C-alpha cells in the first residue's frame, strides 16, 4: 500500500510494513527532548510510575536542553534547573546542555538539530508543542505532555494514532521580500487554527528546494498553530548535508510513495503571496502588512525558535542597515552559536551586531526563549503593560508575551525590521 | 486517578467561547510550578483560567484554591497552543471534572486523557451560546448526555471513541499495565 512520508516513518518505528491513517500503534522514540519547564514534571511522572531507582530506557536518546527560564532570579525556575541537573547526574545522561557553562546552548528547537540530534526518517517526541519544527528535516516530530514523556522515558515507546496527511503544494519562485514566516502565516490564515487538527501538514512543491534549512524550520515550527500533529518536508541534499555534518550516526532517510493518497491537497503560488502579519489574538488573523500601516507600534522583537535563527537576523539586518529604529527593539538569538555569528557574519563588511547597535536596537540578549512566552516577571523583553508589539515569534494569544493587555502582531523578520524603522506596521518592500 | 466510576457528574458550569488557548488556561508565568509536587499542583489549580481577558468573571475566587465551577462548557478548539500539561492539571486541581467542547486541540485532549485529570467530552451542539455561567447541569456518561432543567433539556454528547479504554483505565500508565505493555508499579519493566 502506498504511504506518505509521515506514514512510512511511523510504520518503520512501529515495526510494520504498512500503516494507514487512524491506526493506533506503539511507535518507538529515536529522541525524547525535554527542557526546564516540562522536564521536572516529566521526571516526577517517570519516578512516580517506574520507581525512584528506575533508569531511562536509553541514555543516548534522552536530550535535555534548558532554555525557557534561564536568566531569571525566580527561585522555582532555578530549582527546576537543579532538578534536571540532579536527574542527569543520577542517570548518567550524556546529552545535557547546562546553563551557566560553555555547554549551554539556548532554545531547544534550534539547538536540537544544531547539535546533531535530528536525523531524517527518525521519530522525535518533545515536551514542547513546537517540537514539530524538526519535520523540516524529514523526521516525524511531535509535541507531547509530561505524562506521555514520562512513559517514554521508561519504555521508549508511545501509543499514537497515524494522522491523515494534508499536502500544501507550494509552487513558483520565492520573491526576495517574502519569508517562510509569511508563507506559514498565509497558510494558517487560510485553514484556521484548527484547520489541521490531528493531521500531518506536509509541505511540498517547487518552493522547497529554494528554502534554506532554517526557513523550512520556520514553516514546520508553526504547524501546531493550525492544530497539526506534525509538520513535515521530505529530505533533500540540503537537509542530508546539514544532518551529516553534525552526527556520526548513519542516516536512514525515508520518503513518501509518489502515488500515496492524502486526505486533502491544495496548491499555492508563492509569487502571489505578500508580506503579512497575524493580528491579535490569533496566528490565523492574517492581514497584509501594506494594509495595516495605520497600526502604531511600541516594540519590535526578533527571537524564538521560529524567528531567532541566523537567517532571521540577517534578514532584519538587511533592512536595518543604515537606518535608525523608532521602536524599542529587542534581539534574542536562539542559541549561543547564533549569538556568536552575529559578531562574525557581515553585510558589506559590517558585522550584524554592529548594524543593530548603529540602528539603535537594545543590546543583544543572551540566548533563551525570553519573552516569546512571557515567563517570570523579570524575563527579558516581557510585556508589562499595554505595549503594542510586532514580533517574529509564533503565538499572539492574550498574555502570550507577558501582559494580557499587550497586543501582539506576528510577522517575518523583514517586516518586523521595516516596522521598527517607521514605528507602524510596514511592508518590507518599502526598504528593499 | 481513576475516574471511571464517576459516571454522573452534577455541578455548576463556566462557559467559554472558541479557541481558548493554553496561555489563558494557565499563563506561562506559572509554569515554574511542577505538577507532580503536591503543593505546586494545588497552586496551579488556584491560577486556572486566570489568563482570560478581564471581562470574564473570575474562575477561581481570589484567595481560594478551588473553583465553584466543576464543569466547563466551550466552543471549538479548546486548549489550543502549548503542550504544557499544566493546563489540564490546573483545571483538574481547581476542581473541574469535565470539559464539554465542540472540539479540542490535539495535545490538550491527549494530556487530559493521559493524566486522567478531566474528561474531555465533545458535542455537536453549540452549548456555549445557549448555556450561561452559573447554571446547574448534570452530565450523564452512562447515557452520554448533558441535562439541565431536569429532563426538559437534554443534549447528546459524542462517545469518547478510541480513547475510551485509556480513560476508563485511568490514564496511559494504567492502560499500559492493563494491556501488559508495562508491569505493575513496583515491577514496572515488562
Low-confidence stretches of chain B: none
Oligomeric assembly = heterodimer
Strand content of chain A: 15-25%
Strand portion of chain B, in percent?
Answer: 15-25%
Number of helices of chain B: 7
Order of helices and strands of chain A: HEEHEHHEEHEEHEHEHEEEEHEHEEHEEH
> Using only CA atoms, what is the Rg of chain B?
16 Å
3D structure, described in words:
The complex is a heterodimer of chains A (432) and B (190). Chain A is an alpha/beta fold. Chain A is 28% helix and 17% strand. Chain A has helices spanning 5-14, 39-50, 75-91, 108-114, 146-155, 180-191, 213-221, 237-244, 310-320, 336-344, 352-359, 413-422, and strands at 24-28, 31-34, 62-64, 123-126, 140-143, 157-161, 165-171, 200-204, 230-232, 264-269, 276-278, 286-288, 299-303, 328-332, 346-347, 350-351, 389-391, 408-411. The model of chain A has no long low-confidence stretch (mean pLDDT 98). Chain B contains seven helices and seven strands. Chain B is globular, with a radius of gyration of 16 Å. At the A-B interface, helix 2, helix 3 and helix 5 of A face helix 4 and helix 7 of B.
Describe the secondary-structure layout.
The complex is a heterodimer of chains A (432) and B (190).
Chain A: H1 5-14, E1 24-28, E2 31-34, H2 39-50, E3 62-64, H3 75-91, H4 108-114, E4 123-126, E5 140-143, H5 146-155, E6 157-161, E7 165-171, H6 180-191, E8 200-204, H7 213-221, E9 230-232, H8 237-244, E10 264-269, E11 276-278, E12 286-288, E13 299-303, H9 310-320, E14 328-332, H10 336-344, E15 346-347, E16 350-351, H11 352-359, E17 389-391, E18 408-411, H12 413-422
Parallel strand pairs in A: 2-3, 2-4, 4-5, 7-8, 7-10, 8-9, 13-14, 13-17, 17-18
Antiparallel strand pairs in A: 1-6, 11-12, 11-18, 15-16
Helix pairs in contact in A: 2-5, 6-7, 9-11, 9-12
Chain B: E1 8-15, H1 22-25, H2 38-46, E2 71-73, H3 86-94, E3 98-101, H4 106-115, E4 119-122, H5 127-130, E5 136-140, E6 145-148, E7 153-156, H6 164-169, H7 172-178
Parallel strand pairs in B: 1-2, 2-3, 3-4
Antiparallel strand pairs in B: 1-5, 5-6, 6-7
Helix pairs in contact in B: 2-3
